[in-house]
Design goal:
The structure is a homodimer of 508-residue chains.
Chain A lengths: L4 E2 L7 E4 L10 E2 L3 E2 L9 E3 L8 E4 L2 E6 L8 E2 L4 E2 L26 E6 L5 E2 L3 E6 L5 H15 L8 E5 L15 H10 L10 E4 L22 E3 L8 H19 L5 E4 L4 E6 L10 H14 L3 E4 L9 H4 L6 H20 L10 H5 L5 H8 L8 E5 L9 E5 L5 H11 L3 E6 L12 E5 L2 H6 L6 E2 L10 H17 L5 H5 L15
Parallel strand pairs in A: 12-13, 12-14, 14-15, 17-18, 17-21, 18-20, 19-20, 21-22, 22-23
Antiparallel strand pairs in A: 1-2, 2-5, 3-4, 5-8, 6-7, 7-9, 10-11, 10-16
The structure holds calcium ion (5 copies).
The site of one calcium ion (CA) has 7 residues of chain A, from strand 17 and helix 9.
GO molecular function (chains A, B): galactarate dehydratase activity
Family (chains A, B): Belongs to the UxaA family.
Pfam families (chains A, B): GD_AH_C (PF20629), GD_AH_second (PF04295)
Chain lengths: 508, 508
């Protein structure tokens, strides 16, 4: 049997088993290294003998220290390596240097819904935003009714989506951290896929005033906000009628939207991973990173996120900042999150899951080094705090928790119109507001979940395709999905998750 | 025109305007007090002249201090009184005394679904619990499919409800506070309305292991847990089939449940208020408190909750504890919440909403004094920490945030089978798992929201009915709703809100 193990850099003293069913004891890998025990797919084999305290190196970086003698050919897992300290934020100076020239990539387009503010939608969606959780029972009810009764009359509108959330009342609205959920709700309403047709259902007595959710330049609330406590509504029937009438006004406008040819620079692609395995850093993430570079080269926008998965690779990212301010902003977001976790008596090591470990990722350092690969190699032009909206095209670090739905929610607020989600263990993650293009890090998952995975990056592990080849394939698929000519799996199946707000402040 | 203002105790130096359209300047109330300005319904009129610093007294308690000269007949609102300090928890000693004898109330029953563990359901619901947010898109899809295809075949089953939540992964599962959401999910699956037929959908790689959600005495996971990452599932279609088969097993058992005569002592009624106004403490809450006493007299269980609305009345509650341990537990929950709020740089004054103030509640002290009235007068037999399950019958303090859905979720976890929700401003609050009986504090709301309010406690304000009369009416209505012979408004309309977990720990 052919044995396949993968080293990322020449300095690595571990390699990843790529054979789908793992390798048995006695199997010979690389230059005659004999496996001392069976090692599952995705897990690490020791390429040398380790003394206690020796550095374990992957991606050319120290991912841990041997906590016992480890023989060459042994299985290196989370139990026998100890976690290094995270890079000290004070010790990462920024040196302004000439950044690599970005070679422009021209002529790529997609069919999108151009908006007045310059952004472009990839779907044409009536979004119903709410100012408070209390109204969610009614907005859910209304969404069904609109789908049944109104949507068929407006053929150019793809969907109606209620943004139900658990914020708005019963929360400490003057706590310093309250700004995060508030601006998130505000900015989600401005997502390019909603075409500026903001519709807000409020109750009337909530702490979060619906008016705060309107863009600063929109001073009239007349056609956008409806309060259930409005004295004009005599009961539920009236409320339903009122909301249906408001929806119809917005649907009429949305129905006039048509797809037109948009430059690829209108893409705003949020990159995220979830349910990662050791292949994520070898296949899915580098392929997505390559595609990310292509999008940046067209003048488009790419987000990478997930602070706890970036924290241990921050020394590799700071040098990529376009200037000292961006470098400092990167470090500030790390410091904010360090303090946030510490307040809850946790640290970044709380990130890894049983699934990560089962998939071969021993700790957060190994996970982070594989995770940041999906940012590609472009300079980092800006840092966006949780809930803020992007200001610049190019590669942005959008600071978010790694929690899949919280990250997706914050990327939507930042202005994402296309989501690329890399997974190794598999997740049915889907969002109604933007297409979620699911990339598998290994073919085993892609084959099993044939109707849930959109793109299999697995072949890269076996050298049957290159990262470059697959990066281009993914780039083309992104353009097709953005154009509506291809649908992602979760949109075909109609499975979508609720958004989840990040509220670092207290409930009352 | 008849002027109606209400004083709660003889010591009060303010009274509440009860006339639905408020009172005009010049109106004469009580013993010739002349209004200096128009005062809206629910708001306070000064019954004397106040010097700066004078105590403002309602419910016989200091609700604030005049922060300026206030003439007799003036409108006293939140702007002209300052907030007192909350009672110092160290200064409330517990003195064991002979508690009032509870006069047993016998012969009251309802038609419920008796469970093996001794509890009784008020609905017969297939509950689908999840271990992680990732699976929610699929459980939502499945719920619809079960409703369409399976539920009609099992006529004794009322509903299928998915408990989707935002916990399970992307969270610091070893943080000290993680125990709160984990035990909440665990205990919700044991709610009496699910009849012990626990069904858990997991992903496979999440931090929260689905096995942790099973009751301690249930060691077999075979018939309860399904993982989407199970290698036996080749894609979405297989997952759907797998879940439908599991659901059918549980539906077969649930379909054998029949309503039988249960003693009223099987009631577990969660009392809560939301969107309160100044009438809440005069009408809805005392009427609910009277009904609460009746339920306790039958041997049944009543919860009151909402720590921030109890904090300023804690000195009135500690003496009602059955023993020193319960008294200490009450104070411990207050102290825990004080610290939790302080960590987020907020305090209990963050509780009041614009709606409260608009409805005449000037501050959290006034709100709390009105809020605790719904606990009735029974001794407090136990204190339940957030997410825990009750241990004793009688009046329990179930510690929760005041946030409506978070409180409701924690009351469900504690074992509630009937929810009484008092509102003055109006909220469409509804839950699928248990009936939510909505009590209006004023007839104006009850009339306007004729199809959303189940019980109008407004007549108490005008003396056309007494608290006692209406308390008995509410008690009988609770028994009818628990029996399924009357349906609450939100169940008739089919409007239900998602549950919201209390997660005081950090995201990762
Ligand atoms: Ca990730
Ligand atoms: Ca993630
Ligand atoms: Ca939902
Ligand atoms: Ca309340
Ligand atoms: Ca409440």
């Amino acid at each position: 049997m052919q044995t396949i193990v993968i080293k990322t850099t020449p300095e690595d003293n571990v390699a990843i088993v790529a054979n789908p069913s793992g390798l048995d004891r006695g199997a010979v890998v690389l230059n005659g290294i004999v496996l001392q025990e069976p090692i599952p797919m995705g897990h690490k084999v020791a390429l040398k003998a380790f003394q206690e305290g020796d550095e374990v190196i992957r991606y050319g970086q120290v991912i841990g220290f041997a906590n016992q003698l480890i023989r060459e050919g042994s299985w290196i897992n989370e139990r026998i390596i100890s976690l290094p300290q995270p890079p000290n934020l004070e010790d990462i100076p920024y040196v302004q240097r000439s950044l690599p020239e970005i070679e422009p990539l021209e002529g790529y387009t997609f069919q999108g819904y151009k908006n007045q503010d310059g952004s472009a939608g990839t779907k044409n969606v009536l979004g119903i935003t709410t100012s408070v959780q209390c109204v969610a029972g009614i907005t859910d009810f209304i969404c069904q009714k609109i789908k049944r009764e109104l949507l068929p009359l407006y053929p150019n509108v793809d969907d109606v989506v209620a943004f139900n959330h658990s914020y708005g009342c019963g929360i400490a609205i003057d706590a310093p951290a309250a700004i995060v959920p508030i601006r998130t709700i505000q900015h989600i309403a401005q997502n390019p896929n909603f075409g500026g047709e903001i519709m807000i259902i409020g109750l009337g007595c909530e702490k979060l005033r619906p008016e705060r959710l309107l863009p600063a330049d929109q001073n009239s609330a007349d056609s956008s906000i409806l309060y259930l406590q409005d004295e004009a509504f005599e009961g539920f029937g009236d409320m339903v009628d009122g909301i249906m009438q408001l929806a119809e006004k917005h649907l009429q406008k949305l129905n006039q939207r048509k797809r037109t040819t948009c430059p690829a620079s209108d893409l705003v692609v949020g990159m995220q991973c979830g349910g990662s395995d050791a292949f994520s850093g070898l296949t899915g993430n580098p392929v997505s990173g390559f595609a990310a570079d292509l999008i940046v080269r067209t003048g488009g926008t790419v987000f990478f996120s997930e602070v706890t998965e970036v924290r241990d690779a921050i020394h590799l990212l700071v040098p990529r900042a376009v200037d000292a301010n961006v470098a400092q902003a990167l470090k500030d977001e790390m410091a904010w999150y360090d303090a946030y976790l510490q307040q809850g008596r946790a640290d970044r090591s709380a990130n890894t899951t049983p699934g990560n470990k089962g998939g071969g990722l021993s700790n957060i350092v190994e996970k982070a080094l594989g995770s940041v690969v999906k940012s590609g190699t472009s300079p980092i032009v800006d840092v966006i705090s949780p809930g803020e909206k992007i200001r610049k095209k190019g590669l942005n670090f959008v600071a978010t928790p790694a929690s899949d739905f919280v990250c997706g929610t914050l990327q939507l607020a930042a202005g994402m119109n296309m989501h690329v989600f890399i997974t190794g263990r598999g997740t049915p993650y889907g969002l109604a507001m933007v297409p979620v293009l699911k990339v598998s890090s290994n073919s085993k998952l892609a084959n099993r979940w044939h109707d849930l995975i959109d793109f299999d990056a697995g072949p890269v592990a076996f050298g049957t395709k290159t990262i470059e080849e697959m990066g281009w394939e993914l780039f083309h698929l992104i353009l097709d999905v953005a154009s509506g000519t291809k649908k992602v799996a979760t949109d075909k199946l109609g499975i979508h998750n609720d958004l989840v707000l990040f509220n670092p402040g207290p409930l009352t």
